[in-house]
Amino acid sequence: DIPEEGKFTLPNEEELETLIKKVHEVMEEPENLKLLEYHISDIYTSSQVAASDYQNCAYIVSHIQELLRNSEFIKEKFGLATVENYGSSANTLWSMDSDIDIAVHFTQNESKNSKKKAKGNKKESKKKQNVVNEMKKIDYVKA
User: Fold this and answer.
1) Which of these, 1, 49, 64, 69, has the minimum number of CB atoms within 10 Å of its CB?
2) DSSP string, the chain
3) What is the pTM of this model?
4) % pLDDT > 90, the chain
């Protein structure tokens, strides 16, 4: 049956079963299975990480680290830099826009740093306690 123009009717259960059987028959034909196998194999091959991807990533990470370590300003301000790659850097079929996720860690003079932290923690504790006290006053006034 040809539906009227602009109208579409859903198949009934019997028609749906027939359609599903036909799809299975078509999919199970040897040439279609070979074609499917070819496409799956092609996708798998295309999505593999090449050795050059790892080499490029290692070069970029080491170059960034070298630039940071050669900067006198950064050495004085933050200490020595260590750059770490922690993400996926492969250019695959699934993500054609390859990226590198890096973390940069700096070493600093521990004695200066620990003194600053101790002072900072005292100030932070006082600020937090003042906020808590203010909140208590507000709650008391509301009650």
Assistant:
1) 1
2) -PPPTT------HHHHHHHHHHHHHHHTSHHHHHHHHHHHHHHHHHTSPPHHHHHHHHHHHHHHHHHHHH-HHHHHHH--EEEEE-S-----SS--S----EEEEE---HHHHHHHHHHHHHHHHHHHHHHHHHHHHHHHHH-
3) 0.41
4) 0
